[in-house]
Amino acid sequence: MTATAMVTTETTTTAIATPELAPESRPRLLRGVRLKNDQVRKTWVLLAPERYLRLNAISVDILQRCDGSAALSTIVDDLAAKYGADRAMVERDVRSLLNGLLEKRMLGL
């Protein structure tokens, strides 16, 4: 007869809070994160330590405005006017991109 021992380990998951995007937030790329036009690949990229993200034209337009000087509401208003799009839709898309970058710790407020 064989005895089997069971070991139970307790794992604690700690969630790290991401800052919330408020209309007055002033998003900016964090130190070490660069927006660059890659001439070799003929595309815009977001570079960070051990990260490389290829960007589409709209993402580039959004991130070029994220220099810490403009409020989120201003960025959304500018983009809605530039593209003649519904402000609510633009805000949803901008928030989606920026929240993803906040979670990846590539963007600060």
Structure description:
- By secondary structure, the chain is α+β, with helices and mostly antiparallel strands.
- The protein contains three helices and five strands; from the N terminus they run E-E-E-E-H-H-H-E.
- The protein has helices at 57-64, 72-83, 87-103; strands spanning 28-29, 34-38, 43-48, 51-55, 107-108.
- A hairpin with a 4-residue loop joins strand 2 (34-38) and strand 3.
- Helix 2 (72-83) packs across helix 3 (87-103).
- The termini are far apart.
Per-chain topology:
Blueprint: E1 28-29, E2 34-38, E3 43-48, E4 51-55, H1 57-64, H2 72-83, H3 87-103, E5 107-108
Antiparallel strand pairs: 1-5, 2-3, 3-4
Helix pairs in contact: 2-3
Q: Describe the biggest sheet?
A: 3 strands, antiparallel
Radius of gyration, CA atoms, in whole angstroms = 20 Å
Shape: globular
Report strand order across the widest sheet. Answer: 2-3-4
Number of strands: 5
Along the chain, the helix and strand elements come as: EEEEHHHE
Could you name the ranges where pLDDT drops below 50 across 5 or more consecutive residues?
Answer: 1-9
SS-derived structural category: alpha+beta
* Beta strand %: 15-25%
Mean of all residue-level pLDDT scores: 87
Please estimate the helix content: 25-40%
SS summary, helix count: 3
Q: Whole-Å distance between the termini?
A: 63 Å
